[in-house]
Fold this sequence. Notes:
The protein is of the alpha/beta class. It contains 15 helices and 13 strands. The chain folds into 3 domains: 5-276, 3-Layer(aba) Sandwich (Aspartate Aminotransferase, domain 2), CATH 3.40.640.10; 288-375, Aspartate Aminotransferase, domain 1; 400-460, Molybdopterin biosynthesis moea protein, domain 2 (Alpha-Beta Complex). It is 36% helix and 12% strand. A hairpin with a 3-residue loop joins β10 (342-343) and β11 (347-351). α2 runs parallel beside α10 (263-276), α5 (142-150) runs parallel beside α6 (175-184) and α11 (279-302) runs parallel beside α13 (358-375). The protein is globular. The structure holds pyridoxal-5'-phosphate (PLP). Pyridoxal-5'-phosphate (PLP) binds at residues 82-84, 109, 111, 164, 168, 192, 194-195, 219, 231, 429-431.
Amino acid sequence: MMKTPIYDFLTEYKNKNTARFHMPGHKGRGPDELRSISPFDITEITGADFLFNTSNEGIISESENNASKLFDSALTAYSTEGSTLAIKTMLFLAVKGKRRKILAARNVHKAFINACALIDIDVDWLFPKKSLNSICTIELSASDLENALSGYNKCDLPSAVYITTPDYLGNMLDVKSISDVCKRYDIPLLVDNAHGAYLNFLSNNIHPLNLGADMCCDSAHKTLPCLTGGAYLHISKNTKEEFKSKTNVKEAMQIFATTSPSYLILESLDLCNRILSDKEFINKLDKTCKRVKKLKAEIKSIGFDVIDNPDTEPLKLVLLTNKINGKELLYLLEKHNIYCEYADISAVVLMISPENNENDFISLLSALKEIKKLSANITACSCKSDEDVFILPTQRKMSIRDALFSKAETIPIEKALGRICSSPVSICPPCIPLVISGEVFDLSTINLLKRYSIFYVNVVQ
Ligand SMILES: Cc1ncc(COP(=O)(O)O)c(C=O)c1O
């Protein structure tokens, strides 16, 4: 069984009943509501290691090495600030000492935009070619990437390619073929795998690291039994030596990170290693994937449409709504005590993990049956439209950084035509910016924003 050095240290420390003259202020005691967890919540006292330690000694290092073994990486660094911190770190590593230019597929999470503003990275975008009726998804093949890269002069090539897969709806890109193209151009492939930590533990390992990514971030907390905020930055065994240097990775991460990482989150990442190394978890994961497949068939037989194709990750359940607006369906499900991850006009997203049990699935099915009966009386969806939902290329007048740092004002969307976007405009979730700092508002973006009920925007003064 895999060792859990952080958990062991914290348990021993808790049981020692010490006088705590260190942070945090609760001293492992009150308030009463926190007493069950506060004894484990400590700071970097003697023996507790520190997150940005560049040596290979200490309980955090040992635990990270355990995670690295599980993911078969050259190096895995913990983040207690989600993939958001891991994204900043991998972008910094990718451009350090090089051109600060990245080629990215446009369905990025806003953490990417913020990182580009902070690091002053210039982005060339790969836009969707056609509407997939969601801002979350992009179709990007290896030949699309090849076309894009072949258009650069050698000296202008970007320092990295950045993709998001799986996306918020569970669609996955062909990382293997995309990484082959990147390798031909000697450009590292960075993957936002926030939604796919568990892919490493499927019988067919489709984790991006296993398919050729150079670096990727995983939000452990999204799909693994880990506390919110727990995430990994993985560095591939097959990437450049400079990325594999623990000193470089830790130095980069500490630029953006808090100096008070949560030991509760570190402990949960540590305990997660033990769970993930256990055959029982692998079996449970396999069973859950099979159950979700069956669940999809059951949901279809009730009369709901679900995304069900081989390019989607097995643990996302996306209900495609037709008669009912997705947000209405979300509301109706909540009335049945079913809480989902996200909804927009045409889809409701449910995230499933091996911690969901049969009762959860039965409750979902019975709620959907009831809602179906009710929706027989609904004649038309109240705000579904036939317009395309996708982000089109727009004119860029300033860099992301300059636009975000400029003096700005908030104006109604009707007055935004021709103005330059200051703060990226998104709805959260899925936090995918519809307009990005430095871009000019045109008619199609204004219509898209209205569709998402965004009526005010920040523009450069
Ligand atoms: C695709 C994607 N990337 C990155 C993030 C940020 O992850 P975290 O919340 O772990 O910082 C999210 C969060 O929802 C996401 O959906």
